[in-house]
């Protein structure tokens, strides 16, 4: 599970008091490095093993709490990158060669996530190896302290690029949006095609992180579940996730399938096209729900431009926009069986990539 870093590596971590038996929602956004990860591996079945047993059987680096405390300047407020239901996220530094925590100040860094409920993250990210999944580097399991160490993604989340406004924020070009969509799709396809299928269950823009070259990586596996096995068609589970992204059949029945993730992907693709949030109560009446508002426009070639992100300023191919919109509609099909597989989504997005690559081109 090697990763390619230069010099020292910056990190981020988080603290919490969540009950380990609960399925509390985690809305923390992690920002991490552009480390490249190679090849895939089999995802293990979730088990009833203790945190210590899970961690010790992984290939992750074990850090002491003293090391990580020093790396974040004693958890100083200016080291905090975010807050969420499972705790706070801090930035810190780790040496690239020894993977030991070091003093702040280097150019590259990691993520330290100080958290109590860690089994899901370890069961998945601790064993996964793919370029479009955020890299889990190590952990701290010491007394009451629970911390996870991730690679740092310098360009933050797709959510910030799409929805934050300000003179310092440059809107993403159409080409970069399609590049991010493809990377995220490849991450989901990898999970769905694993020997033990994984259903992500919380696919949204805040969980898509970007490295320095705008390569997308999925983060936050707190709600991930193993997919159905044998002759089972679904997994029955308590309904969890984020309002506006969950598939309608999952909300009604609690039946979880890979098609649930594909619906969520359709919502995110729509956000990428429109530059609007899935749910936005600040919009006029009738426009609060993005899917309900946008669908009628997406099916009409003459009206589709009315829902496009105005910040694109016409810098796009209408033909490619139409194809992306049709793909979003396909993913949002009411009947789960009518939705495409993630493999098909990847193939269709590959056809929408701009010639010559799109890295580093914001508008």
General description of the model:
Strands 1, 2, 3, 4, 5, 6 and 7 form a seven-stranded mixed β-sheet that branches. The chain has helices spanning 51-56, 65-71, 119-124, 158-163, 174-193, 248-253, 258-274, 290-298, 318-331, 342-350, and strands at residues 8-11, 61-62, 80-84, 87-95, 109-114, 136-142, 145-151, 198-199, 208-210, 216-218, 225-226, 235-236, 255-256. It is of the alpha+beta class and 363 residues long. It has ten helices and 13 strands.
What is shown here, in short?
By secondary structure, the chain is an alpha+beta fold. The chain is 28% helix and 15% strand.
Helix and strand topology:
Elements: E1 8-11, H1 51-56, E2 61-62, H2 65-71, E3 80-84, E4 87-95, E5 109-114, H3 119-124, E6 136-142, E7 145-151, H4 158-163, H5 174-193, E8 198-199, E9 208-210, E10 216-218, E11 225-226, E12 235-236, H6 248-253, E13 255-256, H7 258-274, H8 290-298, H9 318-331, H10 342-350
Parallel strand pairs: 1-5, 2-6
Antiparallel strand pairs: 1-4, 3-4, 4-5, 5-7, 6-7, 8-11, 9-10, 12-13
Helix pairs in contact: 5-7, 5-10, 7-9
InterPro entries: Kinase-like_dom_sf (IPR011009), Plant_Ser_Thr_Prot_Kinase (IPR050823), Prot_kinase_dom (IPR000719), Ser/Thr_kinase_AS (IPR008271)
Protein name: Protein kinase domain-containing protein
Pfam families: Pkinase
Which quaternary structure do these chains form? Answer: single chain
SSE series: EHEHEEEHEEHHEEEEEHEHHHH
Q: How far apart are the first and last residues' alpha carbons, in Å? A: 35 Å
Could you list the spans in which at least 5 consecutive residues all have pLDDT below 50? 1-48, 110-117
Structural class: alpha+beta
- The level of helicity is 25-40%
Beta percentage is 5-15%
The outline comes out as globular
Total number of helices = 10
Major pleated sheet = 7 strands, mixed
Output mean pLDDT. 76
Rg is 20 Å
Number of strands: 13
CATH class category of the largest domain: Mainly Alpha
Any idea how many domains? 2
- CATH architecture of the largest domain, by name, is Orthogonal Bundle
CATH topology of the largest domain: Transferase(Phosphotransferase), domain 1
CATH H level, superfamily name of the largest domain: Transferase(Phosphotransferase) domain 1
